[in-house]
Amino acid sequence: MPTKFFCARCNEFVRYVDCPDPKGIGAHKLICGPNVCADAIVEFRGRIVLIFRGKANEAGAGTWALPGGYMRYRERCADAAVRETKEESGLDLVSVQFFGVYDDPQRDTFDDRNNVSLVYTGVGIGELAREDADGEVSAVRAFVREEIEDLTFGLLDPQAERSFLAVSHALDASQFAPGQKFVIGFDHGRILREYFARRER
Measured between alpha carbons, how far is 87 from 108 in angstroms, rounded to an integer? Predict the structure, then answer.
């Protein structure tokens, strides 16, 4: 039952930690949680920024998602949302406001995780990232609302793609044919639906 543990002293995540097995039920891995995450709904030039999580054997692999991730030790929630937005999209997040808490125990079961997400909204400033240091993000794109709700899009030629505010790092264009459906990971589709509904009030 692999999971991830954060060592505040080392400032690193460790994937496998053995349980001391106090009840004598047999060797197994520790599962700690729930874990606290911060996600961001980023408005960028009138569009919503999503990242493509293309790294295999990672949570959300093969899906589009909001920028976000685990909070660090002694980090404020809003600061985590700002940091994750910068790391995964290249944008500075400003005008940050709290949006909601998402705590469905089944929202992310990868590695037996139980993640609670604090979601923030904000405006992205700058340019979309041209590289991703850890390879977790394969592409960054700013979508119009209609694209997100329709759940279809096709990668265009590089010149046209620039006009759509998209940057690819290691994305295989053959994965996405024009009009092919794409998947929004975790519960981020629900979060965006609630965000759009709230804006209409």
Answer: 21
